[in-house]
C-alpha cells in the first residue's frame, strides 16, 4: 500500500510522502490499558489500543515552538505555511547545544533511488552538527516490506528501524511491540522538554506513536486533511472557459465537454478517490479509519450506500469514455502521469498534494503557460462535502529494545535536530545539506546542486519531522494555495471514531479486507458489477467482519470515540 493507501493509479506513489514531508516542503490522547482486555497471543499486549487517561500518562507534554513564526498559521488541521523568500543570514537556531555524545547509531530506512556513498559530505556535516555517528543501512523502498520482515524476524536488528505505515501489515505491528524500546522514560510528560523540537510535535502525532501500551515511535507528523487533491489544468480551464465543477453532475457534464478522443484529449484519470470524498465515504487509508459509530452502531465504509454510489459514479465516468485510456487499461499504475498531463492528454487527476508544487516546478521553464491548481472537493449533490480525517502520522522510527540509554539519548539527539522547524539552521542542514556544496541560494530561493541531489535525499528526515509544513520560496503562490486548500477542506473534515488511535487488530483479521481494492478497480472499469461488491461485503461480514465489529465495539466502549 502507499502512504495514503490509495492505488498508484489514482493516489500518491510510494515515494510521494517525500515531497509532502520535511524533505520537500521547503523545496517544496486510569487503570490498565485496553490492550489487556482485548486478548492476544501473549496475554493481550499485542492487540487493541491505548487512549484516554492511559495515553495521557504516556504522551509527551506539548510545548509550541516560538523559534520561527509561520506566514500562515495552521487552521482546521492544515499545515503551517511560509510564503516569503529565504534569508540565510536570518536563519534561527533551534538547537543551541549539541546533545549527541559521540556514539554510533545504525539506522535502517527505506530509500528510493540510489543511496549516496557512506561518509559523504552531507552525512559528515549532519553527524557533526548532532554529535552522533549515524550509519545508514538504506534499503530499497519498493521492496522494503520484505527486508523489514526478514530483519525483524532475526536477532540482528539495527539501533533504529524506520517503519512506514503502509508496511504495518501482517506480523509487523507485533514485531514492533516485541522488538522496540519504550521511549516513555525519556519523552513522556515534561521529560520531552529536554528536546524542544520534539516537544513541539503535535500531540495527535505522538498518540499515533503508542504501540502496545508504550510510546515507541518517533513520528513524521502530517495534516489530518485529505492528502489527495483533484489536481487540474487551470490554464486550460481558463482558456476554454470551463467552470470548476461543484457537483457530480457538473463534473460529468464538464468531462463530456472536455473529452475529444480524436484529438487525444480526455477529461481525467481514474477519479475513484475524488468520488469517495464527494459521497462522504469513510477513509480507506488505514483499517481503523474505515469504522465509524452511527446512531449507536459501528458501520464499516464498505457497508454504506455512499461507498457503492461512489463506485457507480466512477464507473459511469469510465463508461462515458471520458477517462484516459491509460487508466482504463490500468497502465497509469506503471508510468508517471506527469508528461501526459503536461501535454494536455487529460485535464484532471487525483494525486498527493505534493504534486501541486512538483508539476509546477518541472514545467516552469519549458511550458510557462502551464498552471496546475487544486480543485475543492464538492458534495455529490452540489452541497458541502462530508470529508473524513486522515491519521496525523504515518511514518515512524523505532529504537531497538536492546539499545543502551546512551544509544537512546543519541537517537533522540538526532531526532531533535531533524524535527527542527522551517526557517532554522538545523532545518536547512537536514533538508539541504551544506551551503555551497549541496545547495545555493539566489533571490531567496534555495536550489540543490548536482551533489546535493546525490547526497541529500531521504535519510535524516526519516528519524522525526516537525509539524506539517508547506513552504515553496520558488513558488510562494503554490504554498499559499496548498495551505488555503487544506484550511477550506479542513472546515468540512470530521474525525471518525478511531481517529488518531494506533490500533493493532488481531492477526486472524489481517487479510480480511485484502481483495477490496482490486474489486473496486474492477467495478469502476466495468469488469465486475456492483452486485459483485455487494456479495463481497456479505462474505466479508460472515467471514469475520461482524466479529471484527464486536472487537472494535469493545475498544470504543473502553476508550470512547476520538475527540473533535
Which features would summarize this protein structure in a list?
single chain, 564 residues, alpha/beta, D-Maltodextrin-Binding Protein, domain 2, 2 domains, 5-stranded mixed β-sheet, 4-stranded mixed β-sheet, 22 helices, 19 strands, globular, disordered N terminus, TAT_signal, transport, SBP, signal
Can you summarize this structure?
By secondary structure, the protein is α/β, with parallel strands linked by helices. The protein is built from 22 helices and 19 strands. It folds into 2 domains: 46-222 and 391-467, D-Maltodextrin-Binding Protein, domain 2 (3-Layer(aba) Sandwich); 237-387 and 509-542, D-Maltodextrin-Binding Protein, domain 2.
Walk me through this protein's architecture.
This protein has 564 residues and is α/β, with parallel strands linked by helices. The protein folds into 2 domains: 46-222 and 391-467, D-Maltodextrin-Binding Protein, domain 2, CATH 3.40.190; 237-387 and 509-542, D-Maltodextrin-Binding Protein, domain 2 (3-Layer(aba) Sandwich). It is built from 22 helices and 19 strands. Strands 3-2-4-15-7 form a 5-stranded mixed sheet. Strand 5 (210-211) and strand 6 (214-215) form a beta hairpin. The chain is globular. The model is unreliable at 1-46 (pLDDT under 50).
